[in-house]
Amino acid sequence: METYPVRVTARLDEPLSRGLWIVKPILALPHYFLLAFLWMAFVVLTAVAFFAILFTGRYPRSIFAFNLGVLRWSWRVTYYSFGALGTDRYPPFSLQAEPGYPATLDIAFPEQLSRGLVLVKWWLLAIPHYVIVALFTSGSLVSWDNGVARTIDLGGVIGILVIIAAITLLFTGRYPRGLFDLVTGMNRWALRVAAYAALMTDAYPPFRLDQGGEDRPGEFAPVPHDGHDGHVRHTGSSIAALSIGAVLVLGALATAVGGAGLALARGDDGYVSSPVRTVTTSGYALTSEEFVVDRPGSAFLRDLVGTVRVRAVAVDQPLFVGIARQRDLDEYLRGVAHDRLPSRGVLPGGPPPTPPGVQQIWAAQSDGTLTWTVQPGDWAFVIMNEDGGAGVDASVAVAATLPSLRALTAGTLAAAAVLLLLGAGLIVAGLRLVTVEHPVSAP
């Protein structure tokens, strides 16, 4: 009979407690917490394995042992909690094989892997399986309440079947065998796909629902070993180093992305600009919210923000853009129909007493593009038609030079480099801290 190099077994522990399943998600919280860090390490080490396979055709044995351990740990916790509810035995905190536990997972170590297949199997070739596994493991009920979407996560087909099994267990004390076989088969499918996506085998997962607790029989060599037939074992210090290193590497990547975003935010004109926004009013003016610059902090803010630019463009008529102290602007617009951004509706009134350009209240003004250096005071921007007429329609963008952005970008990228070096160092140390257990030869 054809076998697959991923072996998933499960034994239904009977009798099961009628009500323990209600609190199992709480009891499993320590596992979920630790697995969050272990899965970060899993992702980072799988990326390392990707390049190792690409250049050497081999999956590093110490990485294979760790990733297999994370999958084993996850499968045991899944089986205990709402992935199956197949046992009341608390899962061990271990990456190692636990033959006595009712849920086991083994993956045959591949001596050689395809260098070309590694480029496509984890994303392109696995897409059909991803669709099926998504149906098995994820799904939600969505309802709408006054325009607000409310969802209930049901955990896909597996989650629904396990809930049915839990209710049956509550009232009868028995776990329906047919449901158990079906749930185990779906979990087996998902674990096969996980191993394939993690590059741990080149054997394509079968489109076959192998139900029941026992996997297909056949020759199987599950445990990774070194060149002297020793079994690779990760110690607590190795696991801690790999997990912390992975967190640092992922943090470095996130920091680097942020630094790159800062570097790309500045345009060729030297400004960091907001998106262009269209603003309209049927009144005679559009004003910004008041912003206050305190005198003690004005120098710092000026160094931080630099030069501010407000650009307003209209299609059919010239515009006026100005900045003035709030009290002066309020006095000018007293009794004038105008709107304040964000739009709150036009305040009632009539036309302005004079066109805006005649006024002497402006700290800076322009016919479309205004630049201003931050000064202490209470300020507000205004956009009007140049002739003071009604109906303002403009495309507006606000920008600033942000002189400190270069230093911030450099600091962010430097921090990313430091985090990456520290993380890589811990990962290398963690892989070197593994122990190799040699089998004892019979006398």
TrEMBL record:
Looking up Pfam families in the UniProt record yields: DUF4389
Write the record's keywords in alphabetical order, separated by commas.
Answer: Membrane, Transmembrane, Transmembrane helix
Q: What is this protein called?
A: DUF4389 domain-containing protein
Q: Does the keyword Repeat apply?
A: no
Q: Which domain of life is it from?
A: Bacteria
Task: Supply the InterPro entries for this chain.
Answer: DUF4389
The species is: Nonomuraea soli
Record field: transmembrane: 32-55, 122-142, 154-172, 239-265, 413-434
